[in-house]
Q: What sequence folds into this?
């Protein structure tokens, strides 16, 4: 069964450094998403991406964040200058983009980002 | 704006007992509703989703949920708990196809012998 994959599974970085989190969505899906889950808190939406542009973003997704689909398979989240409060589990998701009903988002296993 | 409230951050049941996890939603438009499960150190897996075709929705692993518009609820149930059901369960709402999911705070289900 196709699945969303994410690399790395765990990333440790120093405050102020740039990090890139990578995701490979399910191959025929059209919508891509990033969510994060700070330890002990709920899963929060960051951004959605469709047709090579951001379709929706939250107030969390400020100028420090960017997303890119550099080729036909990868979807990346970049944090330019990490802060301590960016420490969280980051989930990538993709959905097929079905019309006429709720689209199921399929989640990857997550990347745990630790900022020291 | 939409939101989800999950009552009870921790629920403990005995193996074989009824599981009931509560979810109430708020939405200005007819919602799409989802239940996801998260096993330790894993991602989120869809249990079931409400599509408006039927108010009682059956999902994987014997779980089901009933959409009650008058109560703005979408509670998750399973008649008989199994040890393997121990996990965190998240209710989520969206307002259109492919739009963002807004999650509740989650309920950790513990199953005891």
A:
């Amino acid at each position: 069964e196709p699945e969303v994959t994410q690399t790395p599974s765990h990333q440790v970085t120093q405050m102020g450094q740039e990090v890139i989190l990578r995701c490979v969505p399910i191959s025929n899906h059209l919508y891509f998403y990033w969510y994060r889950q700070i330890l002990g808190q709920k899963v929060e939406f960051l951004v959605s991406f469709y047709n090579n542009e951001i379709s929706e973003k939250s107030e969390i997704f400020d100028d420090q964040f960017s997303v890119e689909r550099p080729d036909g398979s990868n979807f990346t989240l970049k944090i330019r200058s990490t802060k301590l409060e960016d420490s969280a589990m980051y989930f990538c998701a993709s959905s097929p983009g079905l019309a006429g009903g709720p689209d199921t988002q399929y989640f990857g296993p997550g990347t745990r980002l630790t900022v020291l | 704006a939409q939101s989800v409230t999950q009552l009870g951050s921790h629920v403990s049941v005995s193996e074989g007992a009824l599981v009931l996890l509560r979810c109430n939603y708020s939405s200005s438009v007819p919602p799409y509703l989802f239940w996801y499960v998260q096993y330790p150190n894993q991602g989120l897996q869809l249990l079931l989703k409400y599509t408006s075709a039927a108010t009682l929705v059956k999902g994987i692993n014997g779980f089901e949920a009933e959409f009650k518009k008058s109560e703005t609820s979408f509670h998750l149930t399973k008649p008989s708990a199994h040890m393997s059901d121990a996990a965190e369960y998240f209710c989520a709402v969206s307002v259109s196809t492919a739009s963002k999911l807004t999650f509740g705070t989650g309920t950790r289900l513990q199953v005891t012998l």
